[in-house]
Amino acid sequence: MTLQTKPDSCITCHGIMNPLGFALENFDAVGRYRDQEHGKRVDASGHYETRAGPIAKFAGATELAQFLAKSPEVHAAFITQLFHHMVKQAVRAYGINRPEELRKTFSESRFNMRKLVVEIAVSAAMKKRE
């Protein structure tokens, strides 16, 4: 994978995606778990450079999932994408602070999806029309 995505036109994105995907290497093309491939131990280590700067390292799908579940960066991205999917508009169209307000509400609700969906729906319904 590293050799295939080495060209400059690829590595811009794959430099971020590949190390995340490497943490899933214990699963083959159809999702079966494996410790070895062609007699060699599978290396399922990966990493991600956060926007804040530190590099998060993980080995395997479980550690990757734990990192993602605890990441405020991931929470914010999830909320942004969910809002756009539900409302068909960018969340910032509802106020520059709205993304952070939704992230805070989501966190305070202990990541309750139902409450987040309701909060997004209310946000869209309560927008003042000019």
Helical content (DSSP H or I, runs of 4+): 40-55%
Q: Segments where pLDDT lies below 50 for 5+ residues?
A: none
Mean pLDDT: 92
Beta-strand residue fraction: 5-15%
Specify the structural class: mainly alpha
Oligomer: single chain
- Overall number of domains: 2
Q: Count the beta strands.
A: 4
Largest sheet strand order = 1-2
N to C succession of SSEs: HEEEEHHHH
The gross shape turns out to be elongated
Total of helices: 5
Provide tags for this entry.
130 residues; two-stranded antiparallel sheet; 11% strand; 2 domains; 52% helix; mainly alpha; single chain; 4 strands; 5 helices
Summarize the structure in words.
The mean pLDDT is 92. The protein is mostly helical and 130 residues long. The protein has a two-stranded antiparallel sheet. The chain has a two-stranded antiparallel ribbon with strand order 3-4. Helix 3 packs across helix 5. 52% of the residues lie in helices and 11% in strands. It has two domains: 63 residues, no CATH class; 55 residues.
Brief summary:
The protein contains 5 helices and 4 strands, in the order H-E-E-E-E-H-H-H-H.
Question: How is the secondary structure organized here?
Answer:
Elements: H1 8-22, E1 36-37, E2 40-41, E3 45-49, E4 55-59, H2 60-70, H3 72-87, H4 98-108, H5 113-126
Antiparallel strand pairs: 1-2, 3-4
